[in-house]
Fold these 2 entries.
Entry 1:
Amino acid sequence: MGAGRTLFEKIWVAHLVATPAGRSPILYIDLHLVHEVTSPQAFDGLRSAGRGVRQPARTVATVDHNVPTEPRGSPITDLIAARQIAALQANCKEFGIRLFDMDAPEQGIVHVIGPELGLTQPGMTIVCGDSHTSTHGAFGALAFGIGTSEVEHVLATQCLAQQKPKTMKIDVHGQLGLGVMAKDLALGIIGHIGTDGATGHVIEYAGPAVRALSMEGRMTLCNMSIEAGARAGMVAPDETTIAYVKGRRFAPTGGDWEKAVERWRSLPTDQGAAFDKVVEIDAAQLCPFVTWGTNPGMVAPVTGRVPEVNGLQEGERRAAELALQYMALEPGRRIEDIKIDRVFIGSCTNSRIEDLRAAARVAKGHRVNTQVRAMVVPGSQTVKRAAEQEGLDRVFLDAGFEWRESGCSMCLGMNPDILQPGERCASTSNRNFEGRQGRGGRTHLVSPMMAAAAAIAGHFTDIRNWKFH
Amino acid sequence: MKAFTVHRGRVAPLDRVNVDTDQIIPKQFLKRIEKTGFGKFLFYDWRFVAEGKPNPDFVLNETRYEGASVLVAGKNFGCGSSREHAVWALSDFGFRAVISSSFADIFANNSTKNGFLTVRLTDQQVSEVMRRAQGVDNYQITVDLEKCEARDDQGFSAKFSVDEFVRHCLLNGLDDIGLTLQHENEIAAYEAQHGVPAGLQDRGAVG
């Protein structure tokens, strides 16, 4: 390791419990986040094997995927969803796991509440049965999504047998322009490297444009690492990180805080450390993006057009043709001419207070287009309260947006918030897969500002020309 | 876990790249709390048109691919959501293996925990298998994990690589939780050195 170590390598090595010959290294997991959808079969597995939860104190659960965003207290009419939520409640009780339940003031999307409660800290290993666990990498943690078998593995052993991933550095030079958000940076990167561009790799985002991002922006960026195929995404901790974590409910205090901060300051990648792959991005070349197809790599500048497919390679061309067919778009159509029916502002990508502030700034003094139904779903109850204290709810409501309770909501439509067949949606979420937001629904991924502007205009519009009130 | 050694079966061609786990098993079926019974929901939005009627244009609804147990698909198979339900659905439907030129990490990981094999071949080899599956009646392939080889009766043969430990677990149907627990002493020593953070210790009246 003469040339120095990367942030990833430092965390990896510090968490190695055993490196058995001929087998995958065994990694210790500091924090295991659990939600209702990917855990019931794991708890069943524990019971049938006669195993317990090794570290209930390092395991934290909430309900997010299934929960209705109607006012709390309304009954869950979907009985299968209700049964899944009841299963998590029973499992947490049986195994002594902390649960932030439906009616808890801390409830929210697992990747929103982890950071805001100070559970997520630099240098940690964090897993969750959810691919967007990469979000927590924004703090300089090694955080990745796992399947249900691995959820069971971590519950039983607090460890995971993991093959060591490769490393990729994405260096973002310069600064993002006005109206260009972290979401646009993420979409720009995925459009550039492709949805499998980082498969097998842990990404470290670096460079001045990344350093300049707030924690919310870094979370948006790391969140979408999985959409480029990455195992995880990370940003080295700095003063922005430390200031964010300080004073939060589960953050270290007193002497522990001083020691923790000292440790965190030693985490950033050493000068001269080598990565398996390096990608350079010029922030000045980025603009507000809109996806036109059915994967997050199919992006176009808002000022651009739906691309021609003829020049693409066979497999990609077929994929693009199928995507355009599904999306009911044709090559050459101006992005700004695409009309929308629905707007969703929310999800683990873009439902934090800063996202809502940005969207509210756009909405203020305007009215949602009469042809559009727009909803705002805060990421957590904490975000919702903060937004209401600032009066953001009034801004949205006055402009004709719906103001809902917290949860994953229309990002994946497991609760009643779904698109109808053929409906077209400007969404701040992370996946525009076929049927993701409802069978036959057409999703365009955008930043919160772009989503709010589209709600008002009724079609996509360049936020850089927006008339702010 | 069910062991995987050698499997021979009919091949169904799914000629699409970037098949995501939302397509393999759509979200409305993730609310079930069991591990079984997901096969009938596999590729639901592609297999069925409205009101649950089979879509005649979808490859798995063609009678000549009935009973197929090996799927061949374009690159980046299994991308997106971490839902292990995708592997459960493929297995429950009757598939034992998927052949592609690349797999998303979490999907590949989930497969290994369920005795389900992801066979990674080159782009040309995948195209060749795809062509044969589309053109040859009752096209069958043998996926041999002992020899790390995929072969048919018409001269196609390709080596593939699998992580040695993963291969060992699959061949023997090993439960990897049990293997990790063999390191109880090391885990306990690590925990003794790194206590639970103070903030997490007091769970109050949880549950």
Entry 2:
Amino acid sequence: MKLQNKRGDKILSVYWFAILVIVAVGVVLMVNTFYGKGYDVREVEARILAEKVADCVYFGGESNSLLLTPQGTFREDFKDNFLSFCTLNFDPGKEFVRPEYYVEVNFFPDTNLRRSSFVLSEGNLNWKPDCEEKVADRSKLATCVEKEFFMNAPGGAVYLVKILSIVGKVQENV
Amino acid sequence: MYNKINSRGQVGETLTWIIATVIILVLVLFFIFGASLLASTKSISSEFRPSLSLTGHFIGTDPFLKKSLFTYVTLPSESKKIILDREFQRLLSQEGFAIDFNETKKEIILRYNRR
């Protein structure tokens, strides 16, 4: 009778140990699934990129002298040296890998806010169609941020500057 | 007779433990599923604020609005100011600004006049 009782206690201890293991594994899995997943920071990244470009084009109430002549006309060479003039680097650092970024800046004169008079663009244009997609789950698509502001140009002209900033990083962030 | 009653009791007790185990397993699986669902919502988006003490006026961060307002106050032409004002109202109604528009406008005009 006493022997039987002891065996029952043993079985119960093993059972409790198994439950403890199950709960511990469950907690580890919960923490791992929650903290193991990365944060999607692409929207903030795209906004920072747009702000950087905006500061490069227009800062402290003055437009970049490398972009506009004192007469108020756009310098074409700014297009070719856009990244270096704005100290931006889209180089992915690997060969045969396309940049994860795309930036487009449109300058609309106040006289015609529908027709852009100067365009700056740099980066991977293939990300741009992603901005048009209207789907709920955008984790597999690039993140697009569009910002605009008014800029005083030399010669009294005013431009509406529209900046489209895109961050791909579909694999890294999601 | 005694043995039969005893074994029936043991069966009942075992069943209780089995059901308890199943409930614990189901609960653990439910919480793991919940954790994975919550993990998919982790994102730092436009609601991200650089500082928790940030308030909704000039101190806030909307560099684009500030640039536009600075352009507005430095404009010599009144007619262009009217056009810009109209555009601000359009933007305000369409998407709004990250910071209080009227407060920021007042603050920039004040700062500009102090110069």
